[in-house]
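From the pipeline queue, job 12 of 40. The input is one protein chain; the requested action is below.

Action: predict structure.
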Amino acid sequence: MRYLFVHQNFPGQYLHLVRDLAAGGNEILFLTEDNPNFIAGVRKIVYKLPRGASAATHQDARDFEQAMLRAEAVARAAASLRALGFMPDVIIGHHGWGELLNLRDVWPDPPLLGYFEFFYHLRGLDVGFDPEFPTVPALYPSIRAKNAVNLLALSMDGVGQTPTRFQHETYPDWARPRIRLLPEGVDLQTCRPDPALRQAPFELGPIALAPEQRLVTYVARDLEPYRGFHVLMRALPRVLAERADTEVALVGGDGVSYGARLHQGTWRERLLAELGGRIDPARVHFLGKVPYASYLRLLQRSDAHVYLTYPFVASWSLREALAAGCAVIGSDTAPVREFITHGRNGLLTPFHAPDRLAAAILAMLEDGSGSARLREGARRFAEANLPLDVSIARIKATIADLVAGRAAA
């Protein structure tokens, strides 16, 4: 079959699916902005934005203007492909950035499978969740406006997909029948426990641990409040004081992926200034963004892995931590509860309680048999719920249904 994928950051959520389809001899074109990523058997077609959103545009409409610029650029590239004779059997892409909005003007007929990630609300989810950073009513219009592309995408024909019940339930009741729940899996052969890493000296960058030492890990794309970075940092002084044998590895950049940016400096600088000398730089390692192999080794060596998030989209790292058999301490928030059952395959703590988080970390480090049981539970959960071949088979079956249905129509 001939596939057209669209995602501004190739390959986005489609890495494993595209690899599988390419290995099956399908013709795959992928429309994206320029980046160095490469997958054998995939033709990457780069589109370029003519400009960014204008400063003269109303601030609440700038994201929408950017989305329409993307839609225009993608449609222009698609028209060139059609002129060259390319006609996809199916179009698959992410609705979040508006890239799919004008594709029906180029190809009205192929079935469309669009990724729906999150529908924004003024209350009950991420907005207003953290009392430390209250949302002022003046920002409500811009939050509502974030759904403009969502709503236009829902008005298109085609079928949607989303990976978790939590994300599905963020969408309005009338929209949910249009969106199929297609859980995303993990490569369980790559992401697997490696107990030998805790039984021998371990080195990675500035970290050098003897087998008897303990390692607490934390991973986020960026070190920011949406992923509970401030909560973890405030929990660490107690952990460091009570466990002299413990070091901490934090993976993530100093940017802001979600939420408001600071006017000056980074969240890492701000929290270090707040906590002063209670964070020992010889024991707390800020590793920045690391290669995937290094990240995976940290998960496999971890004695206690912390994953915190607002009620927002769960990170891939949570799935991979469970697959790697981490002893996970997660925030008691809806997206995490979908993956962790307290006491069975991890521990849950209230998001806003650094003392409770510190106590959970210390309990995990102290109770060897309990930690081992949770590790085994994490891996069992991954094997039962996150196998990559099952998730790929589900989405391929959905694609087959769409193609067959369009052919019958």
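Job complete. The chain has a mean pLDDT of 96.
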